[in-house]
Structures are given as C-alpha cells and as structure tokens.
Amino acid sequence: MRSQYKILHTTYRTKWDYVEKRILNESVWMEENGHSIIIAAPTDTPLFLKAKAHGFKVYGIDFKRLSAIKDYKFLKRIFYNEKPDIINTHGTRDSKLALLAAKKAEVPLRILSRHNDKPVRNSFFNRKIYKKYCHYIFTTSDDTTKYIKKKFKLKDMQIFSISNGIIEPDNLIQKNEARILLAQELDLDINTQFIGFVGKQIGNKDISTLFEAFRNIKNSLDSYHVAIIGDIKNEYKNYLKKLATNLQISNQIHFLGFKENIWPYYRAIDCKILPEKNVQNRSNESVPLNILEAMICKCPVIGSKNTSLVDVIDHEKTGLLYEPSNSSDLSDKILKTVQNINDTNERIQNAFDFAKNNHTIASMGRDINRIYRLHQVKLERHHFKAGDIS
Fold first, then answer.
1. What whole-number distance in Å separates Cα of residue 70 and Cα of residue 159?
2. Cβ(226)–Cβ(253) under 8 Å?
3. 141 contacts: CB under 8 Å, gap ≥ 6
4. Residue 132, strand partner residues
C-alpha cells in the first residue's frame, strides 16, 4: 500500500490566523513524513509567502467572486498537470470552486476542512458540496461534527473531528521562573502568584464572572493577582476595567494584551480559567485551542459546563468545570485548584497525557494519515471488484 501522497491545499483566506497556521503546520509535518505538498492561496498573503519561503510549490489564486470562472479553469489545469492524490480545501469560496474542479479532474481523494463554528445553510448547492463533491469532511470539534452530520444527513465515515494539532515548544521555562518574570513585568513583588486567562484572543468571554469570583475569595488568596493575556477590544476592556473598580479589585487585575509567545504565561499562572457564557444549544462549537495549550504546559484548567470544553475537560480528571455565570461555583473551583495541590497535580498529569496523546501536531497528522489510507483501501477494493466483473 502506498504511504506517500501528493497533497494540494487551497484557501481563499488572506489573514495569518489559526486556519492558515494549521495549513502550514500540517503541511510541514506531512512533508517531514514523506508526502509532497502544493498550496494554492491568494498571492502575497502570509500563507502564500511562508509556504513559498519554506520551499513548497505554490499557486496564486485570489478566489474572488468576479474571477470565479477564471479561477475554476485555472484550478482544473493545476489538477490535470499536477495530478494530486489528495485535495484539501479550507474555506467557503475555495471549496465551491476547487472541489468541483477536482471532481471533474477525478482527483482520487477530496476533503473539505471546516474550521469555524458558524451555521451553514442546507441549500441545494451546499448539499452538493458536502455530499457529492468531497469524500470526507474534517471539523475541529465533536460539536461541529454532530451539527454538520445532522444538517446534511451524513454517515459516520463521511465526517471526522480532527482538532488543530499543537506544536510544542522545544523548551518550557520552569514555572517558578516564569511566575517571577511575570511579576517583574508587572512591577509586582516577586512572591506574587497568578490566576487568569491566557490566549491569543479574548473575544466575548465571560470575564466578568471571573472578576466576581476573584472578588469573592481575594481575602483567601491575598498573594494572588489576575492576569488577562490576549487581544481584547477597547470597548470590552474599558467595561472590564470599570467592573474591576466597582468590585474593588482593580489593583489586582492586569491586562497584558497580545503576546506572540504565550507559552511562558501558561507556565506563570497557577490556574488557567476559560469562562464561557452559558450556551443553550451546543450544536456547533469549536474547542478553544488555548485550553489544550495550557494542558501541554501543565497548567491546571477550569472551564464552563454546557460548552465545547466538555469535549476536553473531564471534570475532576483533566480539569474542573463550573456552572456558567455562577461566580460562587467558580470561586469554589479556583480554591480547590490552588489549595488542594495533590488533587490538582493528578489532574495536571492526566490533562497533559490527554493533550499529548490526542492533540499534538503528530497525533493530528497520524489521524489524517489513517483516513488517507482508509480511502486508499476503499479505492483498491473498488478497482479489484471492477476487475472481477470485467
């Protein structure tokens, strides 16, 4: 059985965000494991330039609405000339064109990767894309898989949950050293300890519940401060600053903003909290990558119940879950984490093992390779039966 393939990725996106990073990281891992890679993306975008600098073969396609016919014809030429074994599309606009062109060119394996948790219409054209043009759909969470599977009435072997693979840093700073460096960065006493949020983006998280929970227990945690690390809109930041003042905890709340290298900050805090808002219908949520990154860094985690976090936080085993918007419950979970060290250390190790075995770039790559080979087995069986009939 073949173990090496020519894989072509497409995306219409022009940013340098988690989707583009996944495409590049996955491609590098696949190349290191014997596959050859081609990437089709808008010209001179970060992904295009980084892929080209790495040495991947690249094609510049803008995937704009006004150039759809031209792009479709160009894609067909690429497929006929390159003869890829696999195409993997990563966005709405490129999927519509590339999967159709790949079907016409009889590319053996066609994959649609869905990275977001936005609703999708059950339209005639979308049914074509999800049920006819692609062989498999990849999502980043079980919630999204269930949502798409139900929406388009897909079979189990048509759709798979494959979360983004974490690339672990080569060396992690010692926790106490990281804590001291954070205290020095904030011009605080070097014995200061921290809980809080660490991630690239804060978004619309329920940070107000975290603040209220901290206010409830600050007298029991007199050496602790709250660090909020991640990009945050000014309007929401101003609201949180005003709330901290009203709760009389403003001197213990610190907004550090976006950090390119967030790994030391996971190591610096004694508890990573992801306070999601209550979700009435968990039908289409992605698992936040920052929870898995915290687990890899052996940072204890707390998250909200009734959210996609339950896919990765096994309560009392890999972390703790609290009732959404319930500051008293969150206070209790914070105290359990920072005061019951033996139980916390056991959860830390369980969480590390879980993330290491299931959510690194290597585990992601192995899962994808299994699906590639599964499809090859199906093709070989089909050809064998066709040969018998003839």
1. 30
2. yes
3. 117, 161, 163, 285, 286, 287, 308, 311
4. none
- pLDDT, one tens digit per residue, over 39-59 is 999 999 999 999 999 999 999
Burial (CB count within 10 angstroms: exposed 0-12, middle 13-18, buried 19+), residue 342: exposed
E strands of the chain, at which residues? 6-10, 36-41, 57-60, 86-89, 109-114, 136-139, 159-161, 193-201, 224-231, 253-257, 272-274, 301-304, 320-322
For 136-149, how does the pLDDT look when each residue is reduced to its tens digit (9 = 90+)? 999 988 888 999 99
Reported residue count of the chain is 390
Taking Cα atoms as reference points, which of 140, 127, 60, 57 lies closest to residue 99?
Answer: 127
**Is the distance from CB of 284 to CB of 149 less than 8 angstroms?**
no
Which residues neighbour 281 within 8 Å (Cβ) at sequence distance 6 or greater?
Answer: none
| pLDDT exceeds 80 at position 61 | yes
Task: Give per-residue pLDDT as tens, 97-138.
Answer: 999 999 999 999 999 999 877 889 999 999 999 999 999 999
CB 61 within 8 A of CB 70: no
Region 225-244: mean pLDDT is 94
Hey, what amino acid is at 308?
Answer: S
* pTM for the predicted model, two decimal places: 0.82
Q: What are 315's strand-pairing partners?
A: 319
Amino acid (1-letter code) at residue 300: P
Rounded to whole angstroms, the Cα distance separating 199 from 105 reads 42
